[in-house]
Amino acid sequence: MKHPFALLATGLCAASLCASATAQDATFPLRTLTPETALKAAQGALADCRARGYQVAVAVVDRSGITQVLLRDRFAGPHTVGVASDKAWTALSFRTSTLELVELTQPGRPMSGLRSVPRMLAIGGGLLIEGGGSIHGGIGVSGAPGGDADEACAKAGLKAVADALAF
Q1: Which one of 10, 72, 87, 167 is most buried, counting C-beta atoms within 10 A?
Q2: CB atoms within 10 A of CB 45
Q3: Where are the alpha helices (DSSP H) in the chain?
Q4: Domain residue spans of the chain
Q5: What topology does CATH give the domain 35-165?
Q6: d(CA 53, CA 45)
Q7: What does residue 146 show for φ and ψ, rounded to 5 degrees?
Q8: Could you list the pLDDT tens digit for every one of the 167 residues in the chain?
């Protein structure tokens, strides 16, 4: 049989460990995109669109949905700036590509009401930026001839930073 003081010490130790575990659970570390990484993603998407002959705008939002980088090519329409930012925000906010949201939010579908959320755009060209088990932000492209083409350019932007995010 253990001495009563040994049981008390064991109980105090367990309580101490429990308290430190609780303190550790009160916060957690976040990984965020550096401006340089966000810029590299945007430049990769812009370069891919240019190679295809498209004049576009590219936006990268951070994990909070705030625009971190915005690039607009010389002849991209004025609407492309807002649309690219909203596509990036939508991909981040809903944790899926905006091209997938096109189908999921069609009229008559259970998620159709999402189309009334301000800034939500169910148009291809917005992708989630993920890596190393974390969500880092979103990228949106606007100005190519169709959402599929916008998404292809956005994928090129992701590819440009894939190695840096695969930690």
Answers
A1: 87
A2: 32
A3: 4-25, 35-51, 79-94, 98-104, 147-165
A4: 35-165
A5: Beta-Lactamase (3.30.450)
A6: 12
A7: 115, 155
A8: 555 545 445 555 555 555 555 566 788 788 889 999 999 999 999 999 999 999 999 999 999 999 999 999 999 999 999 999 999 999 999 999 999 999 999 999 999 999 999 999 999 999 999 998 899 999 999 999 999 999 999 999 999 999 999 85
